[in-house]
Amino acid sequence: xxxxxxxxxxxxxxxxxxxxxxxxxxxxxxxxxxxxxxxxxxxxxxxxxxxxxxxxxxxxxxxxxxxxxxxxxxxxxxxxxxxxxxxxxxxxxxxxxxxxxxxxxxxxxxxxxxxxxxxxxxxx
Length: 124
What we know:
It is built from 5 helices and 5 strands; from the N terminus they run βαβαβαβαβα. The protein is of the alpha/beta class.
């Protein structure tokens, strides 16, 4: 079910990115990488992406703002927020920005995969 599905990982931390990428590529996902929010918006316009794993605290444009911008031109794309700040008001802000789900960091790759598969299956 995941073969060829593209996942954009918007993450400025290379260690986190590589850990997630390894897990996803083993499952047959195609992985794109954005190092900041501006790049995430650009890649979302240029590629057919199934799901975005969006780090909330990135340089140039944070995850909330990037999510808002992406949802204006692609309301169907699933965006999973990844945040180190898992307070109640953060969850409200994340949902309000248009994220479909959120995971608090650090997140085990298996958990990311489980959530991702749920969104991919429901989207296809």
